[in-house]
Every structure is written in structure tokens, then in C-alpha cells.
Amino acid sequence: MYNRLMKEQIDSTRLPQHIAIIMDGNGRWAQKNGMERYMGHQEGAVSVRKVVEAAGEIGIKYLTLYAFSTENWNRPKEEVDALMALLITTIQRETGDLMKNNVRLQAIGDIERLPEASKSELHWCLNETSKNTGLTLVLALSYSSRWEITKAVHDIAQAVKENRLHLEEIDEALIDKSLTTKNIPDPDLLIRTGGEHRISNYLLWQLAYAELYFTPTYWPEFRENSLFEAIVDYQKRERRFGKTGEQIQSEK
Ligand code: FPP
Fold it and tell me: Which of 22, 90, 107, 184 has its CA 20 to 30 A from that of 45?
């Protein structure tokens, strides 16, 4: 159960529209508790559930979770298999609640690389929840920014080569549209759990103006209150987008 006092500190008129999270620290949490690493991921899935529910409840529109990076394919096979299996069981267990809570699931990343069983379960859930109109939950799976940007450059170059696009038409808006995050607004707030202060190949283009929030809390211990705390911290900051503080004040 979360702390209502913390939730009440949130100004609902100035919510971040999009929160992106790097869910780090599952392995260390498991180690700290004398457990196998996969148990950290299992407990991490409980945090996913709690944070998704809390985000939807307070009116966040987009939540993007870094569930599996391109680099994660290099982990020991047993751990990769455990994460892929967890993806399936989590989708099977949670889709009912996603429907009840009006959550739409989306996925970004090189989904084609996922094993067949995970891919088909994911596609089923994407389809099932596609008409929901509340929170959009974006899972970054087999995702890395450099992969995404490389793919976008390739697609744009191909279009130029085939005369479907002129060089002069390449601008920021076109690049935005060529990324897997097209139709998703840029994150306003990035949260990284687990104590590291890194972006780790996550949404590099999209995070240009995001506020960064780092917490030592391991992901399995990051629950509703931790999310509310991060939002309260975000709301204390002034976002200037390259302008001066005076300009921002006079625009209010
Ligand atoms: C990083 O912790 C976390 C991951 C690589 C996986 C994140 C996955 C989940 C939270 C599980 C379930 C999610 C879904 C959507 C089913 P780490 O293992 O790198 O931790 P460490 O730095 O302590 O080793």
C-alpha cells in the first residue's frame, strides 16, 4: 500500500506526460537477499505491475520501460531464457488487468529477434490492448538507441536512393518519424534505479530535454511511493529548453 501523503504532494496539473525508466538493480537486489539473479527479475516484474498501476491512476499518459537491451543478449543463456520466459508469464498474468485499467501496450526495439513464443505472446497482448485509451505502456525490448538510429539512417538513405525523398526534406521531424518511437512524445522525465548514473544506450535522441532522476533504490524495491517521489522532485525543477529563466517566467 502506498503513502497517500506522498501522492497528495503531486500537482496533477503539471504531470510529466511521458516517463521513461531504466529498471536497474534486479541482480544486486537478489544477491543482497541471498537469491538467484532470476528471482530479482521476478520481483522486478512485481514493481512493473505496481508502477504501471500507479502511473495510470495519477494520469500519466506514457510510460516506457527498458525491459531488455540489445546488449542484454550477451548475458548468460540461462538468464536470457529466464527473462524471455518472464515476459511470457507476465503478459499472461497481467493482460486482464491491463484491460481493466485501460492500458495500451506498445513495444519498441528489434522485436524480430525475440524467440517465437515471446514474440507471439507479445503480439497477442499488443493487439488485445490496442484500443485502450488510458496509459500507454511502452516496453523497450531488444532495444538500443544506436540500433534504432542506425536503422533510421538506413531507411532514410534507402528512400533518398530510390528518389522517394529529397536530401532537403531531411529534418528533425523526419528523423523523429523514422524512429521506433514515432507517435510517442519525447520523455519529460527519465528515472534510473540501482545507483548508476548512466543513460546506457536508451532513447538517446528522445531524451534531449528530459529531466534526469537517479536513485540508489534497486528496481525490485522501487514501488508506488518511489514513483511519486520522483514526480515530486521533477515538479520542483524548471525546464528551460535552452531559454533563460527570465524568458520562462515571463511566458507563464
Ligand atoms: C536490470 O537489472 C534489469 C533487466 C536487465 C531486466 C528488467 C526486467 C524486469 C524488471 C523484469 C520484468 C519486466 C517485464 C516487462 C516482464 P540487472 O540485472 O542489470 O541488475 P544488476 O545491475 O543489479 O545486475
Answer: 184
Query: How many whole angstroms separate alpha carbon 172 and alpha carbon 214?
Result: 28
Are residues 132 and 165 in contact, defined by beta-carbon separation less than 8 angstroms?
no
In angstroms, the CA 244 to CA 4 distance is 36
90 lines ligand 1 (CB under 6 A): yes
**Can you list the residues of the chain whose pLDDT is less than 70?**
1
Render pLDDT for 50-75 as a digit per residue (tens, 0 to 9): 999 999 999 999 999 999 999 999 99
Among 57, 43, 79, which residue's Cα sits nearest to residue 221?
Answer: 43
- Please name which of 31, 141, 129, 130 lies closest in space to residue 86, comparing C-alpha atoms: 141
Domains and CATH numbers, the chain: 13-237 (3.40.1180.10)
Contacts of 134 (CB under 8 A, 6+ apart): 56, 101, 102, 103, 104
Distance 11 CA to ligand 1 centre (A): 30
122 lines ligand 1 (CB under 6 A): no
pLDDT of residue 1: 64
